[in-house]
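Chapter review: from sequence to fold.
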Amino acid sequence: MLVRVKELCGIGDIPTCPKNAKRWAIRAGIAISQVASSGGPTSMVHVSDLPEQERRAYLAKCAAATGLPPGAYDDAAHRSLAL
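The token string follows.
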């Protein structure tokens, strides 16, 4: 699953500034893909390429955004978070 670098800002050890977050990813050896978007090229990374701490924090953030109570099971959410 690809995610925009700017969506990762402030998660774990990732800097809050998108430019610095991209530099952090490069230093961490994470491959960055440039994907066309309506506002121009967007820097994206594979969630599976993130270090474990940042990957788990990002997935927890996505899970929290669903609004489901802890322990609830949602097939659609599990499919969207599947690596």
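Two observations follow directly from the output. The chain has three helices and three strands. The CA atoms of residues 19 and 55 lie 19 Å apart.
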